[in-house]
Amino acid sequence: MLTLRDAALPDRHWVDFVLQHLDPTLGLTRNRGRIVAIRSETPDTKTFVLRPARPVAFSPGQFVPVRIVLGGVVHERPYSPTSRPGTATLSITVKRHPGGTVSGWLHELAAVGDVVEIGEPAGDFVLPASFPARLLFVAGGSGITAVYAVLRAALWARHEIDASLLYYARGTADFAFASELRALEERHPALRVQLLAQQPDGGGTPAGHISPAQLDALVPDHLQREVFACGPATLLEAVSAHWSAAGRASRLHRESFAPPAGASDDAGHAAVPVQFRRSARTVDGDASTLLAIAEAAGLRPATGCRMGICRTCTCTKIAGRVRDRVTGAIDDAPMSRIRLCVSEPLGPITLDL
Amino acid sequence: MNAPTNLPVRAGVPASRNSRALTPDEVDAFGAELDALRTEVMASLGEREATYIRDVQSIVRYAEIGGRGLLLLGWLPPAWVAGTGLLAFSKIVDNMELGHNVMHGQYDWMNEPSLRGDTYEWDHACDGDAWRHSHNYMHHAFTNVEGRDRDIGYGFLRLFDAQPWQPLHLVQGAVAVGLATLFQWGIALHDLEMDEVLRGRRPLDDVVRESRPVLKKMLRQFAKDYVVFPVLAGPSFVPVLTGNVLANLLRNLWTFGIIFCGHFTAEAETFPASALENETRGAWYVRQVRGSSNLTGGPAFHFLTGNLSHQIEHHLFPDVPAVRYADMAGRVRETCARYEQNYNTGSFWSQFVTVLARIVKYSFPTWPAGEPAVAR
Fold it and tell me: Selecting from 3.10.20.30, 3.30.70.3550, 3.40.50.970, 3.30.70.640, what CATH number does the domain A272-351 have?
């Protein structure tokens, strides 16, 4: 039914425009936060403490999209908060990526008092409802942020929990939260932290990459543990292969902040016509994502993470059959909302783009 | 890529009254030149355009606040005049340079949620989704194709020979005045295609099903301008109401004038449905040029038309930010000249007079013989 509310409620973006003049963190459509502290963790890693206008209801291990405006364009990256949920501030730890737009801005230009936008938390890299008896955490490089968040949540929940952390990084100085982890180890007798440097300072012996033999040596009962792994693709692949071979893949939780792997080898998308209806263009799509096809055709759709996380590139598929590269789900419903960055065409497609 | 099927049969484009015929190779080359221009401009988008459209968004909102604020003092004639003017200005810019252009997805690359083409809503009676269908799709894909582009006469007016004459067309001059006066409501109902129901080509159930969001937006817009703001104004009820009515009227007349000059000038061509068969990208470009007409004027004029004064460029490049059309026009015009394609342009009044003449001419029965040869 048509209600007075429909008729009289002002547009939310319009209200935000007025609120922005009062305080740049205010807004109905989005949550913004001021940077209240910045501290260095390692030579290329910094922690940013944000005070959002509205509390962010996340579970430890989830990520929140952080958005900044550079050159007029909104850029977004997912970061895993390491602060305790329910507190007024939110901490994110960011590694400086060479040539990275968002991490570059945060490291070089961001100052206390600056405002960033904080999106809705997402991700299923969280402790299961039935609490596991023994835990193993595997972190590689900046993957420590999500792992650290879950580890701390486990320790808050059960002080005496039997947990082991294998933390891989390049040099001895590259371990973020090293002193915090040592302090946790002292407070929690059943926690064991092993820092594994690939190129230790002072000519120590390299720890070497993760392998079944190394796992047997460092954590002999690793297959009996619930595992949380986050890090580069090579590390995650090795972990997945090992746990799958042992038939324990169901105990493995993994998080990756890299784009999904390439095309599946389904037949049917050798050259399918992709019609961009709003742009009045039809092109031959190849075996890549609809986002790549659109950009190759010269379109510039809205994009965010480009890995199926943030939903910025969501658009209406008027007709056609697509596969979600992340989940493998096939969608052939008309007028469905799809994420371009992870959708590959399996037949002729019409998009409202 | 190996695409054995559905490759368009390469065809040339026939001559029309002011444009010469093009061979298949020329059509391809024409399209390739325009594609290259488009690619160049799309690659150059950045802070300049982003700042521009954010400024436009701010101008629309400040003007609306200022206009509605002044109308609260509307018992004072200067405040009423200034308030009405500012509100009309806000609505015109919101409809054209901001809303129309944003809804084409011209600024999607900014990733800014309030400027996203597929969710934007404007200060207009027409529901955004209905607009995206009737305008972005039906009109832009099938520009001036008889029976497909429903913007030809908006289902009310007869403007081309191919439309069969009916006695009712004798009064279409008066109908056009009515449409111009109530243009936003006409556009709001346009996508429901009720004229097709009268012709028995569309089931009434479809209209009923699709009418909910349309009626909702119309009610919202009516309530906002004619109930909520006047009532909120208390003692200024009357000046706010009259100011809102006049601001909407001014916006309706202006947008009607600009839009009718875009495709219904004397030299704008229409095309039979067969023009769509195996139409290549190049031929699509040729059709957009021949079916559209530009308006000359200064920067303020272009701004108030939402750069739709560059209608030809807009139809060639509907998703390029309109603020860049002026830059592109020189190259487009030069390309058209080289291929001897008519680049239809003129001042607002000179073009508008031909639109009026057309409305009058087609009130009476005409026969295709009197019409320029079109692509068949």
Answer: 3.10.20.30
Contacts of A4 (CB under 8 A, 6+ apart): B223
- A11 and B6 within 8 Å at the Cβ level: the answer is no
Chain B residues near residue A312 by CB distance under 8 angstroms: 111
The number of beta carbons lying within 10 Å of the beta carbon of residue A129 is 5
Which CATH architecture group holds A134-255?
Answer: 3-Layer(aba) Sandwich (3.40)
Kindly report the nearest CA distance between residue B46 and chain A, in angstroms: 6
Q: Kindly provide the ipTM of the predicted complex, given to two decimals.
A: 0.81
> Using N-to-C axis directions, what is the helix angle for B281-291 and B24-43, rounded to 10°?
80
Nearest CA in chain B to A12: B114
The correct CATH number of A12-118 out of 2.40.30.10, 3.40.50.10150, 3.40.50.300, 2.60.40.10 is: 2.40.30.10
Asked if A129 has any chain B CB less than 8 Å from its own CB, the reply is no
Amino acid identity, position A284: D
- State whether B224 and A6 contact (CB < 8 Å): no
Tell if the CB–CB gap between B141 and A279 is shorter than 8 Å.
no
Instruction: Check if A31 contacts B (Cβ < 8 Å).
Output: no
Structural domain including B72 reads 24-370
One digit per residue, pLDDT tens: chain A, 353 residues?
A: 556 666 667 888 889 999 988 998 898 889 999 999 999 999 999 999 999 999 999 999 999 999 999 988 888 888 999 999 999 999 999 999 888 899 999 999 999 999 999 998 988 899 998 888 999 999 999 999 999 999 999 999 999 999 999 999 999 999 999 999 999 999 999 999 999 999 988 778 888 899 999 999 999 999 999 999 999 988 999 999 999 999 999 999 998 876 555 544 444 446 788 998 877 788 888 878 999 999 988 888 888 778 777 677 888 888 899 998 877 788 888 878 888 988 999 989 999 88
Distances (CA, A) of A163 to A52, A153, B135, B279: 32, 12, 60, 66
Closest Cβ–Cβ partner in B46, B216, B220 for A72: B46
Q: Which residues contact B372 (CB under 8 A, 6 or more apart)?
A: B16, B17, B18, B269
> Which chain B residues are Cβ-neighbours of A316 within 8 angstroms?
118
